[in-house]
Every structure is written in C-alpha cells, then in structure tokens.
Design brief:
- With about 375 residues, the chain is of the alpha/beta class.
- It folds into 2 domains: about 240 residues, Aspartate Aminotransferase, domain 2 (3-Layer(aba) Sandwich); about 130 residues, Aspartate Aminotransferase, domain 1 (Alpha-Beta Complex), CATH 3.90.1150.
- About 35% of the residues lie in helices and about 15% in strands.
- It has 14 helices and 12 strands.
- The strands form 2 sheets. The chain has a 7-stranded mixed β-sheet, with helices on both faces.
- Helix 7 links the parallel strand 5 and strand 6.
- It is globular.
- The chain starts with 8 loop residues before the first helix and ends with a helix.
- The chain binds pyridoxal-5'-phosphate.
Length: about 375
C-alpha cells in the first residue's frame, strides 16, 4: 500500500515510509544496522545511501513518517530533543538575537544561557502568551523566535499564528517546540511557524524507552542547512532508536486520545477537590488560554495537568503517597508520572524566577497515561487525604 498525504493521520502514522520491505515482504520496517553501503562503481549509490551518519534507511523511514505527520516537506531525526535544538541553533551566528518564551523547557534554557551565549548569541525571555511582549522584544538583530505551547509546566498557551505574523514582519524565523502537543493535536507549520522541533522521547515514542529528537520544516533553505549540520555535527539517532520511534508513532493517535480523555477527567475531578488550591489545564474554561487552545489544538487539550496544594511540604506528602503515578521526570508515555517542578525538572531555575512565573512550592505536574482513569483518580484521592 502506498499511503498518500490525503489519508488520515492515523493511517499515515502506521504506513508512511514503511510499506512492506521490497526484498522480503516483511510488513515491519527492518532495522538497518549497516554503517556503509556498497557502490556500483565509484559514487554509484544504489538507493541514495552511502554512510549511516549521513543517511540510513531506518532513519529515512522515520523521517518520512514524521514529515507526513507534521505536514512538513522535510524532517531530520536526532539523537535527542536537545541534539535537534543544538543542531538547529547552528543556523545562527555570533551577534544574532533570539526571543524565547519564558517558561521554556529547562534543558533548552540551559543550552541557550550556559552554552550558546558563550558563542556570542543573545537571548531575551518573554511571556509570549501576550504576543505584544514578543513584538516589544524584537530588535534589528533578532533572527529567531523560539516558542513552546503549551509551556512546561504552567501550560500557558501561545498564539502561534499571531506571533509568527509579528516575527515575520521583522524578518525573524519562528521555531516551535511541539513536544507537549505532538502533531496529533497541533501542527505549527500550518499556523505559520517556519520550524518545528520535537523531543521524540516524549509523546512520539510514548513508552519511556527511547531518547530522540527531530527538526521539521517546509523551507528548502532551512532544510539544506539542517541536513548539512546533521551530517557535520553528527548527533544522529541509532537505527534501533529510529525503529522504536516508528513503532511508537503507530499508536500516537490512540494514546493521545486516551491521554486527553484521562487528563480532562482528572483535571475536572481535582478542580472540585477540597485539598487542591488550583488546577492548571487548558481544557478548563477558567484557564486563560482555553479558547485559544481549543482553536489551536483541535478541541483537545493534551495529557499534562498541573495542580497546586498548600505548600512544598503538602506536595512532598502527596507525591510520597501515590501508588500508580510514578514519581519521575519526563512525560508523554503510556504510564502516568508525577513530579515536583520546583524541586525536580525546574530546580535549576532560580527560586525568585520560579515564583515570578508561577511555579509555586505546592505545584505538582502530572503526565497522565493510558491506565483506567478510575484507578488514577482513586490514587490521587488517596494521596490527597489527610
Ligand atoms: C524533554 C524535552 C526536551 C528535551 O528533549 P530530550 O529528548 O530530553 O533531549 C525539549 N523540550 C521539551 C518541551 C521537552 O519536554
């Protein structure tokens, strides 16, 4: 079967890039471990493959599938989300300026602040949930606007189309880290973004068993640049990791549907719980980005939920009493996870900055999995009782 771009998302997730193997008929994409490929005469590549850092058939299958799902002309797979971001940032030169969303993923902040600054790039953080803040931060040297939406862990929603229009008017490119939504819920390139970045470690892989990343674009110029640096810097994923991701992608729509349903049910339940001060979930009407999220994410709101209890001591107690939710960092997989942003994922953000942006001591972040939602709710209720 040859899938076409008019097939539905779930059909493409299962079939694009991975028709039956022409040599054997195997219905599953083989894991091509070969590092080098025989040539018919010097330079005579049989199928375009020469050396596996430059390109590899299993990776090519993954890249084709990812491109189809994001609606991108070009996709590039990397060894991790941060490897993808690092390689993309090689697009910039010393003196270039980047505007980025202020509660950006902690590892991205560290890369910008502790590594890329040393190479002469400059960075300004803004609360991009008001696009006017992005406009105010743009300078003559701004090359890139870096967005995440929903953000981590506060699930703020950024209007991708509005920010892209403002950035483009200043000649800046827009990259969106689409890890939290996945292409099943949100396709930033269709909203005007120039580049999408993923940590495929999360929803795309979906089983907490592979670290990976991707860069996607419709621009031939950007693609040329990323292809050159993917090969020059060499932060590529192994064929086995690519295969695990292809396997994960097949169930992305099923997992996402269930995770969105479970997260919505849990968010509503926690909103009515006396021990919970506040629930952060874009699906709740009181969330400030609710209407925008409904438009931008196709009426679904993702699998991440935040909630606040009285203080850090209460949060530690809840986390120590959970039985089904595992206390761990990361997100997006079939099993439910819980963590304390202030003490775990966002511990490297200075305390004053954490409080300023709203990461309170009592904040707990849930990555809701695909278990029976009644069990998840019973687990939370038990952990929250006195
Ligand atoms: C995990 C994550 C990253 C980094 O990806 P790695 O695969 O861990 O390198 C980047 N952005 C977001 C939003 C993430 O959750």
């Amino acid at each position: 079967m040859t899938p076409s771009h008019t097939d539905g998302f779930a059909t493409r997730a299962i079939h694009v890039g991975q028709g039956p193997d022409p040599a054997t008929g195997a219905v599953v994409q083989p894991i091509h471990l070969a590092t080098t490929f025989a040539q018919d005469g010097v330079g005579g590549l049989r199928a375009g493959f020469e050396y596996s850092r430059s390109s590899n058939p299993t990776r090519a299958a993954l890249e084709e599938c990812l491109a189809s799902l994001e609606g991108a002309g070009h996709a590039f797979a990397f060894a991790s989300g941060l490897a993808a971001t690092t390689t993309l940032m090689l697009l910039l030169n010393p003196g270039d300026h980047v505007v980025y969303v202020d509660n950006v993923y902690g590892g991205t902040f560290r890369l910008f602040d502790k590594v890329l600054r040393r190479y002469g790039m400059e960075f300004s953080a803004v609360d991009a949930s008001d696009p006017a803040n992005v406009t105010a931060a743009l300078t003559g040297r701004t090359r890139l606007v870096w967005l995440e939406t929903p953000t981590n862990p506060l699930l703020r929603i950024v209007d991708i189309a509005a920010v892209a229009a403002r950035a483009h008017a200043h000649g800046a490119l827009v990259a969106v880290d689409n890890t939290f939504a996945s292409p099943y819920l949100q396709r930033p390139l269709e909203l005007g973004a120039d580049i999408v970045v993923h940590s495929s470690t999360k929803y795309l892989g979906g089983h907490s068993d592979v670290v990976g990343g991707a860069v996607l674009t419709n621009s031939a110029d950007i693609a040329e640049h990323v292809r050159f640096h993917q090969n020059s810097a060499g932060a590529v994923p192994s064929p086995f990791d690519c295969w695990l991701l292809l396997r994960g992608l097949k169930t992305l729509p099923l997992r996402m549907e269930r995770q969105c349903d479970n997260a919505f049910t849990i968010a509503r339940h926690l909103s009515a719980h006396p021990a919970v001060r506040r629930v952060i979930y874009p699906g709740l009407p009181e969330h400030p980005g609710h209407e925008l999220a409904a438009r931008q994410m196709g009426g679904r709101f993702g699998g991440m939920v935040g909630f606040e209890v009285t203080d850090e001591k209460a949060a530690r107690r809840v986390l120590s009493r959970l039985r089904i939710f595992t206390l761990a960092e990361s997100l997006g997989a079939v099993e439910s996870l819980a963590e304390h942003p202030g003490l775990m994922t966002h511990a490297s953000v200075p305390a004053a900055e954490r409080y300023r942006i709203g990461i309170a001591g009592g904040l707990i972040r849930l990555s809701v999995g695909v278990e029976d939602v009644a069990d998840l709710i019973a687990d939370l209720d038990h952990a929250l009782t006195d």
